[in-house]
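User: Please fill in residues for this 374-position structure.
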C-alpha cells in the first residue's frame, strides 16, 4: 500500500526538521529478474540481461544517483508473465557493473544459507577491489522454501529465530575473516580451522539488510550500516526508522535507514495516473498469489489478499505518480516525514523512465552543489 500523507501529517512534516531530500541518498533497485518489479502483463517488461542492467546502472551514475542494488532470486513465480522466471546472479553482475561505472556504489545480495562466509569474504574482497571501495553487501536470511528446496538446501527444521542465529554467526565469522590473519571458530553452525582469507579488503564493504522482526532489527543494529524498512503508512515508517537507529545507538553504532519507492511519472499528474492505472489493470494475479504462498501464506488467504486490490498489489512496493514536480514533492514528503536517509527507486521502464527522472526530478531534489550522504 503506498504511503499517503494526511493534512495533519503534512503539518507535522513541516515542523519535524527531519532529513531533507537534498541530503538523501538515491539509488536504483535493478531489474535483475525478468519483468522488473511490476507484476503485470500491461506494464513494461524489463529484460533479465546484463546489457539491460548495465545501461540502467550507467544512467543512474550519469544522473547523480548514489547506488545501484540487485536482489538475489533463485526461482520465479509463474503466471501469465512468468514473473522472475529468468534471473541473473547478483554478485557476478555487480562485479561487471563495478567495472562499467566509476562513482555509483554497487550493492550485491547474498543469501547466508547458500554462501559460506569464507567464500563470501573472498568474493566481496574481490568486488571491493574491482569497485575501488564502492561495494556493498545486502545480507538476506533465506526464507522462501522453494527457492532452496529445489537445490536440496532447505532445512525446514530451522525456525525464523534459528535462521537469524545462523546469520549472526555467519556475519561474525565474515567480519573476522576480513580483519584477522587466521580464524579458528567452533560454533553452532560453522567450524573453521586456521581459515585464511587474504588479502583483506582495504575498506570494509557496506553491510545492509532488511526485515522488521525483532531478530532482524537486532541483527541490523549490531552489524549493518544500512537498514531497508517497510511499513503500512508514513507514521509507521518513521517509527521504524527511529526504532532501528535507537537500537544501533545502544550498541554504540550508527545506521542509515532506507525504503523503496516505485515512480510512475508523466508530463502531467493525470497522464501519470492513467499510466499507473493501465499497469495495474494487467496485474498477474496467479504470479502474485504464488509469491504470497512462497512467503508461507495458505493459497486461499494469498488469493483473497491479492483479489482485494490487484491493481495496487501489482506494484509490490509503495508508489508515487505525477508530473516531475509532483514526484519531487512526494519524495520530499516521504523522506522528511519518515526521517529516512535514502530511497531506493524502481521504474517501469528503467531506460526511458530513469533518464526522464534524472533529467527532470533529480535537479529538483538535489540543487546544484548539494551533496548526498556518505
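Assistant: Residues filled in for all 374 positions:
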Amino acid at each position: 500500500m503506498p504511503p499517503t500523507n494526511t493534512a495533519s501529517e503534512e503539518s507535522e512534516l513541516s515542523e519535524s526538521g527531519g532529513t531533507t531530500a537534498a541530503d538523501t541518498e538515491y539509488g536504483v533497485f535493478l531489474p535483475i529478474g525478468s519483468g522488473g518489479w511490476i507484476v503485470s502483463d500491461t506494464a513494461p517488461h524489463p529484460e533479465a540481461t546484463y546489457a539491460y542492467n548495465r545501461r540502467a546502472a550507467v544512467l543512474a551514475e550519469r544522473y547523480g544517483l548514489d547506488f545501484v542494488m540487485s536482489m538475489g532470486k533463485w526461482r520465479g513465480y509463474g503466471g501469465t508473465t512468468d514473473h522472475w522466471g529468468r534471473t541473473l546472479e547478483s554478485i557476478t553482475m555487480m562485479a561487471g557493473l563495478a567495472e562499467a561505472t566509476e562513482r555509483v556504489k554497487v550493492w550485491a545480495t547474498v543469501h547466508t544459507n547458500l554462501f559460506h562466509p569464507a567464500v563470501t569474504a573472498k568474493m566481496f574482497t574481490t568486488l571491493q577491489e574491482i569497485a575501488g571501495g564502492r561495494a556493498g553487501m545486502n545480507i538476506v536470511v533465506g526464507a522462501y522454501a522453494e527457492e532452496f528446496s529445489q537445490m536440496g538446501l532447505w532445512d525446514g527444521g530451522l525456525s525464523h529465530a534459528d535462521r537469524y542465529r545462523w546469520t549472526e554467526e555467519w556475519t561474525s565469522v565474515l567480519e573476522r575473516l576480513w580483519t584477522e590473519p587466521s580464524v579458528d571458530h567452533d560454533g553452532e553452525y560453522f567450524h573453521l580451522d586456521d581459515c585464511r582469507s587474504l588479502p583483506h579488503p582495504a575498506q570494509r564493504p557496506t553491510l545492509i539488510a532488511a526485515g522488521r522482526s525483532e531478530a532482524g532489527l537486532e541483527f541490523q543494529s549490531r552489524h549493518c550500516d544500512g537498514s531497508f524498512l517497510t511499513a503500512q503508512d508514513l507514521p509507521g515508517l518513521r517509527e521504524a526508522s527511529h526504532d532501528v537507529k535507537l537500537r544501533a545507538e545502544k550498541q554504540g553504532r550508527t545506521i542509515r535507514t532506507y525504503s523503496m519507492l516505485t515512480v510512475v511519472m508523466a508530463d502531467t499528474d493525470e497522464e501519470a495516473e492513467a499510466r499507473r492505472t493501465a499497469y495495474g489493470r494487467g496485474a498477474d494475479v496467479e504470479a502474485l498469489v504464488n509469491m504470497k504462498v512462497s512467503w508461507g501464506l495458505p493459497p486461499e488467504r494469498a488469493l483473497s489478499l491479492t483479489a482485494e486490490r490487484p491493481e495496487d498489489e501489482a506494484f509490490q512496493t509503495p508508489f508515487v505518480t505525477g508530473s516531475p514536480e509532483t514526484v519531487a514533492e512526494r519524495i520530499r514528503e516521504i523522506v522528511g516525514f519518515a526521517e529516512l536517509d535514502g530511497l531506493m527507486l524502481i521504474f517501469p521502464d528503467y531506460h526511458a523512465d530513469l533518464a526522464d527522472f534524472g533529467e527532470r526530478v533529480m535537479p529538483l531534489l538535489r540543487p546544484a552543489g548539494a551533496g548526498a550522504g556518505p
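For context: The two ends are 30 Å apart (CA to CA).
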